[in-house]
Amino acid sequence: MKVRKLTGTIGAELSEVSLAGCSAETAKAVQEALFEHGVVVLRDQNLSHEDHIAFAEHWGQIDVNRFFTPVPDFPQIAEVRTTPDQKTVIGGGWHTDHSYDPAPAMASILVARDLPAFGGDTCFASQTAAYDRLSPGLKETLENLSAWHSDGSFATGDPELKVRRDNTGVASLHPVVIRHPQTGQKALYVNGDFTTHFDGWSVDESAPLLQYLYRYCTQPAFCCRVSYAPCTVVIWDNRLVQHYAVADYQGQARLMNRITVEGQPLTA
Ligand code: SIN
């Protein structure tokens, strides 16, 4: 397997590796690259739905997303679909998948199925780089804070998005600075879609510092941007990066299939 870094901070393209029917050893090598780079891009992958599930299961149990429409006959795979009449898209703001869950998903594995003629990229921001570059003073403050994350934005968010709204009501508390469960790297862990407030602070008191962190932690030096071609697979580690689906292909359809793999409770 060859690894080519996308930037000095985040992301790598992996080549000379095939995910369909791969061995446990290959799946482990891909996971190690993921833990190092936060997001990995694999081109020309011919993955059936069964291959997609089999690859995910090398890494753990599939964490079924309760809001997304599943692929017919494959409840483990979520459809991330945009229809030509939509002006907004699922994931069209900086966020971390499943941060509202007590044990947030480890990885998301996205397979490009139907792409617009142009646009529809995904941006990623390294939350380890963001943590590393904080001042010692703010690091210390944030390391003593936890924040609440809620799935309520699925209930109150954009009604155009085709997600289920009958299943909301989960909120979870996580440290603001987490340690990656496998590598021990420290990362910032708050996001604009799901974080509501710091524990012990009101929503109003939390807002200025959270807004500062959202701007700070998604600045271009921490980011990469991935463009898709047919058969592109992109995998990200939700403990290491945030992501943002760019809504710049209005009037066109886009369909991605996503599997999220279970994670574990996060600790400081
Ligand atoms: C997501 O937020 O998981 C979807 C990303 C994308 O569609 O680019």
Short structural summary:
The chain is an alpha+beta fold. It has a single domain, classed as 4-Layer Sandwich (Double-stranded beta-helix), CATH 3.60.130. It has 6 helices and 16 strands.
What does this structure look like?
The protein has helices spanning 24-37, 49-59, 127-132, 136-143, 153-156, 203-217, and strands spanning 2-5, 12-15, 39-42, 70-71, 74-82, 107-114, 122-126, 146-150, 171-175, 177-179, 186-188, 195-198, 223-226, 233-237, 241-245, 254-261. It has 268 residues and is an alpha+beta fold. It has a single domain (2-261), classed as Double-stranded beta-helix, CATH 3.60.130.10. The strands form 4 sheets. An 8-stranded mixed beta sheet has the order 1-2-3-14-6-16-5-4, with helices on one face. It has a 3-stranded antiparallel beta sheet with strand order 13-7-15. Strands 9-8-12 form a 3-stranded antiparallel beta sheet. Strand 2, helix 1 and strand 3 form a beta-alpha-beta unit. The radius of gyration is 18 Å and the shape is globular. The structure holds succinic acid.
Bound molecules: succinic acid
Report low-confidence residues grouped into runs of 5 or more.
Answer: none
Give the % helix.
10-25%
How many helices? The count is 6
Q: CATH superfamily assignment? A: Clavaminate synthase-like
Element order: H for helix, E for strand: EEHEHEEEEHHEHEEEEHEEEE
Total beta strand runs: 16
- Round the mean pLDDT to the nearest integer and report it: 96
Fold-level CATH name: Double-stranded beta-helix
Whole-number radius of gyration?
A: 18 Å
Q: Report the oligomer.
A: single chain
Structural class: alpha+beta
* CATH class (first level) name: Alpha Beta
Shape type: globular
- Major sheet attributes: 8 strands, mixed
Overall structural domain count: 1
CATH architecture verdict: 4-Layer Sandwich
Strand arrangement in the largest pleated sheet: 1-2-3-14-6-16-5-4
Strand content is 25-35%
